[in-house]
Amino acid sequence: MQKSLFTKYFTICLSMLLVCIVVLGAILMAFAARYFEQDKYSLLETSVDEMVDMTEGYYEGNTPYGSKEQLLKSYSVLANAIDARFFLVSADTNKTLLCTDEQPCEHFTYMVSDEIVTTAMEEGVYRELGRLSGIYQGQYYTLGKPVVTSSGVKGVIFASISANSLLFFLGEILKMFLLSAVLVVVIAFVVIYFITARMVRPLRQMVSAVESFSKGDFSVRVPVQDYSEVGRLAMAFNNMASALATQESSGRSFVANVSHELKTPMTTIAGFIDGILDGTIPPEKQQHYLRIVSDEVKRLSRLVRSMLDIARLEAGEMKLSPTTFDINDIVCQSVFTFEQAIDQKHLDIRGLDAGKVMVEADRDLMHQVVYNLLENAVKFVNEGGYIQVSYHTENDETMVSIKNSGQGLTKEELSKVFNRFYKTDKSRSLDKNGVGLGLHIVRSIVNLHGGRIMARSVEGEYVEFMFTVPTAPHSKKSHSRTKESKPARESRQENPQEAEGEPLAAQDASALNKEANQPEGRDMDE
C-alpha cells in the first residue's frame, strides 16, 4: 500500500528523533562511564598516596606505626572509608606482605605478575580495569604505586574497587535518561503530528481542488495561511485556478461568438439562395441578392482567415522574418489603399511627411498591423475629421501612433477593446462587416515582436492607438527623437489637453504565449 505524504513525513521526523535519542543516550552513557572511571581512579590515587606516605614512614622508622599490625590497621581504616581493597606487594618476591582482606584472601594465594610490578616501579603508577593477573573473579579498578625509601624500592601498594558499582551507576543514569526520552518522544509525537498535519493540509486541499477542476468546477480555492513555500504554492495554485476559470469562460465565450458570427452570414446566404431556387425572389432582383450573398461569403472568408491567423499566433507557429524597412512607407501605402473612403469623408491625413522611420521587424506582419489600425481609423473617424500619424524614436524602440478624431471610447470600452470578438455599440452600427478580431491580431503581432500596444481616448474627441517596434540598428540614437508633420505639431500646440485624455489602456506583452493564454487582455480593435 502506498504511503501518504503525511505518513512519510511523520515517520521520517519521528525516526530521526528516535535515532537522535539513541545516539544521545550512547554518548551520555559513554561520558558517564568515563566520568565514573576517572572519579574512581582519583579516589584510589588519593588513598594510595596517603598509604604510600605511611608505608615509607614505617620503613624509615620515623612514624608512629612501629609495627605491621598498626600499619595494617591504618590500611583497613582507609579501605573501609572508600569500600576498597588494599595490599602491599614486595618489590623483590612479588609476594603480598599486607592485605586488608580477611585471611585467607586471593592476594596471598595468587601473586601479582612481574610485568605489573615492574610497570608500577618504572612509571611510578599503574592503572587497570580487569582481574589483575587473574587474582580477582570479576572486574576491578586497580591502581598501584611504589613505596620508595632512601634504601630503594621496598614494594608496591595496590588499591582495588569493584567495577560492579559502575553498572549500578550507569543503570541509574539510563533510567533517568529513558524516562526523560519517553517524555520528549511523547511531546515530540504530538507536536510533529500537528505540524505535519498543518503542512500537508494545503496539499490535500489542492488535491481536492484538482478533483473539482476535473469535474469542471473552477470555483474552489486553497486558503493561504502564511507566506512560506507551501503558502506561495497555494497562492500560485489559486492564480492558476483563476486563470483556468477565465480561460474556460473565455473558451466558452469564444465558441459562442464564433458560432454566432458563422450562423448569421450562413443564415443569410441560405435564405437568399433558397429564395432564388424556389422562385420567391424574382429574376430581376436576383443580381442584387447574389451580391449580398457574395459579400457574406467574403465576410465568412475573412472570419476564417482571421481565426487561422490567431490560431497560428497563439500556437507559436508564425515565425518572424525581420528585415530593416521604412515603416512610414508602409503607412503611406496603407493610406492610399483607403483613398476612396478618405475622399468620401473629406478627411485630413496628417504626419505622412515625417520622412524615413527605419525599424527592424517582419515587414508583412507590420503591414497587417498598420492596415488594421488605419482601417479602424477610417471606419470610425467623423465626417471631415482627421487621421494623424506620428513617430517617436528612443534608443532601441520606435513608437508608432495612429490617431483619429471622432466619438472616442469610454473607459469601459477601452478596457475591452482588445478582446476577441468585442465590438462597441457604435462599431455595430458603423461596421457591418467586421467581426472584432482585427485588434486582437494586431496585439498578438506586436507581442510577437516583443513590443507594447496601448490605446487612449477622450470621449467625443479622439481615439489614439500606439504600438512599439524595434528600431533599426543603424537608426538608434542616444536621445529621443520625434517625427511629426507641421500640421500635427500645430494641432498639438492648439489643443494641449489632447495628450492628457483618459488613462492609457495599455498592454505590455513581452511574450506571445503569455498573452495568448490571457484572452481578456487588451488588443486593438474598436
Estimate percent helicity: 55-70%
What is the makeup of the main sheet?
7 strands, mixed
Distance between the termini: 60 Å
Q: Which stretches of 5+ consecutive residues score pLDDT under 50?
A: 478-482, 484-526
Q: What fraction of residues sit in β-strands?
A: 15-25%
Gyration radius from CA atoms, angstroms:
51 Å
Beta-strand segment tally: 14
Structural class: alpha+beta
Task: Characterise the protein shown here.
The protein is α+β, with helices and mostly antiparallel strands. The protein has 15 helices and 14 strands. Strands 7, 9, 10, 11, 12, 13 and 14 form a 7-stranded mixed sheet that branches. Strands 2-1-5-4-3 form a 5-stranded antiparallel sheet, with helices on both faces. The chain has a two-stranded antiparallel ribbon with strand order 6-8. Helix 5 runs parallel beside helix 6. The longest helix has 56 residues. It is rod-shaped, with a radius of gyration of 51 Å. The two termini are 60 Å apart. The relative contact order is 0.07. The C terminus is likely disordered.
Could you write a compact summary of the structure shown?
The protein is an alpha+beta fold and 526 residues long.
